[in-house]
Amino acid sequence: MTIQTRELTYESAGVTFNSTMAWDDTLGPRPAVLVAPTWAGCTDFERAQALRLADLGYVGLAVDMYGAGAVGADKAECTALMTPMMSDRSVLQARIGAAADAIRSQPEAADEPVAAIGFCFGGLCVLDLARSRQDIAGVVSLHGLLLPADNLPEPDLQAKVLVLHGYDDPMVPPEQLIAFATEMTATGCDWQLHAYGQTLHAFTNPEANDPDFGTVYSAAASRRAYRALDDFLSEVLS
């Protein structure tokens, strides 16, 4: 097995994006999995996720959501990068959709199904990918935002959906879980929600250690979440 990486450059609405592919070059075309980033943008964390997916036999794509590989250095910069897409979800949907189209155009993933996973803000991105596209096999939100897309009041959602959530996440309180479950049930899609007790936001990130902000790593919840994630991908991409 030899894992390769390369930058994948593409455009959406005049903006150029620089995402990172990872794949095993001993395999033929394989299913692809997008990795949508936290509010900080595409960092080494997302690229490591793409490499992990390549080790599992998929084509991983660490997605640049902001353009030109932009990354926020602090909370203020991250907020400034994320806010425009939270305010106009059609832009968010177009950008994550462009990433899906770009990976499909690559020979390593040609004619294979596509799934997507996302962390925090990226969780919202992949849920909106499922809400806005019918050619996605499945999506996984890890400690993601669950707000409905205001431009898609009745999404025609065909993808399978898995949400992995810290029950004590202050950014997504229990009432949002109920609202999300109601939304998913109304679509008739195949959906799951795993809530981990005594668990805050960003629980898969070993560097998360800000209790006042509500972001704390949990080794136990992270281990459980990755097991669920891997099982889900095996199911939807087989």
Describe the structure in your own words:
This protein has six helices and ten strands; from the N terminus they run βββαβααβαββαβββα. It has helices at residues 44-55, 75-87, 89-104, 121-132, 174-187, 219-236, and strands at residues 3-12, 15-24, 32-36, 59-62, 114-119, 138-142, 160-166, 191-196, 209-210, 215-216. Strands 1-2-4-3-5-6-7-8 form an eight-stranded mixed beta sheet, sandwiched between helices. A two-stranded antiparallel sheet has the order 9-10.
What features would you highlight for this structure?
238 residues, alpha/beta, Rossmann fold, 8-stranded mixed β-sheet, two-stranded antiparallel ribbon
Task: Please specify the SSE layout and strand pairing.
Layout: E1 3-12, E2 15-24, E3 32-36, H1 44-55, E4 59-62, H2 75-87, H3 89-104, E5 114-119, H4 121-132, E6 138-142, E7 160-166, H5 174-187, E8 191-196, E9 209-210, E10 215-216, H6 219-236
Parallel strand pairs: 3-4, 3-5, 5-6, 6-7, 7-8
Antiparallel strand pairs: 1-2, 2-4, 9-10
Helix pairs in contact: 2-3, 3-4
- Return the domain count: 1
Order of helices and strands: EEEHEHHEHEEHEEEH
Low-confidence parts lasting 5 or more residues at pLDDT below 50? none
Radius of gyration: 16 Å
Structural category: alpha/beta
**CATH superfamily descriptor:** Alpha/Beta hydrolase fold, catalytic domain
Tally of alpha and pi helices:
6
Instruction: Indicate the overall shape.
Output: globular
N-to-C CA distance: 20 Å
Helix share of residues? 25-40%
Give average pLDDT, whole number. 97
Number of strands: 10
- What is the architecture at the second tier of CATH? 3-Layer(aba) Sandwich
